[in-house]
């Protein structure tokens, strides 16, 4: 049971991580998160929710609940991501042209770490809520999704490239 919870949490972290990466970095994935008139600007796009719904065979009620959870989590995480970006810019300015003030860099690094911790807590909270919505069969499918993703990505987990979770 513990492994299943970990696997689902990892799947959701992957989805959320892709969302944050796309919002912060731009690129092809960013299209999923553009405003489509059915949620706040830059909310998770219908394509992402459709993908999850198809892969996990969610009911319409589950799909609506997942969308609500994702939009709510995004509303909480987006300001944190913006602050992380601001701190990153401050760090770049503080170290431009070879400058280095260790106290200032440490202060900015600590600010960024705290913001990242808040982001992770919010992600874990949302993953727990989504997990509670899934049936045992859907949880199994979520595990399979994670395995497929790690196979295609070369494995970007704590166990190193291409290694599976225990």
Structural class: mainly alpha
Shape: elongated
Number of domains: 1
Helix content: over 70%
Kindly report the average pLDDT value. Answer: 75
Radius of gyration: 18 Å
| Structure annotation, total helices | 5
Uncertain stretches: 21-42, 154-166
Helix-strand sequence: HHHHH
Percentage of residues in strands: under 5%
Tell me about the biggest sheet?
none
Count of beta strands:
0
Distance between the terminal alpha carbons, to the nearest Å? Answer: 13 Å
Q: What is the topological layout?
A:
Layout: H1 2-25, H2 46-56, H3 60-94, H4 102-133, H5 136-153
Helix pairs in contact: 1-4, 1-5, 2-3, 3-4
Keywords:
166 residues, 72% helix, 5 helices, mainly alpha
Question: Can you tell me about this structure?
Answer:
The chain has 166 residues and is mainly α. It has one domain (2-153). 72% of the residues lie in helices and 0% in strands. It is elongated. The model is unreliable at 21-42 and 154-166 (pLDDT under 50).
Compact description:
This protein has 166 residues and is an all-alpha fold. 72% of the residues lie in helices and 0% in strands. It has one domain (2-153).
């Amino acid at each position: 049971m513990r492994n299943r919870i970990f696997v689902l949490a990892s799947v959701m972290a992957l989805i959320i991580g892709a969302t944050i990466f796309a919002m912060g970095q731009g690129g092809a994935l960013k299209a999923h998160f553009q405003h489509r008139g059915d949620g706040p600007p830059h909310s998770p796009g219908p394509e992402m929710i459709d993908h999850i719904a198809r892969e996990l065979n969610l009911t319409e009620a589950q799909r609506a609940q997942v969308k609500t959870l994702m939009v709510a989590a995004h509303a909480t995480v987006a300001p944190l991501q913006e602050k992380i970006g601001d701190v990153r810019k401050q760090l770049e300015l503080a170290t431009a042209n070879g400058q280095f003030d260790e106290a200032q860099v440490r202060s900015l690094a600590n600010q960024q770490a705290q913001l990242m911790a808040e982001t992770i807590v919010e992600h874990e909270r949302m993953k727990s809520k989504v997990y509670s919505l899934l049936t045992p069969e859907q949880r199994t499918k979520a595990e399979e999704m994670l395995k497929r993703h790690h196979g295609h990505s070369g494995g970007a987990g704590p166990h190193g490239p291409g290694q599976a979770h225990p």
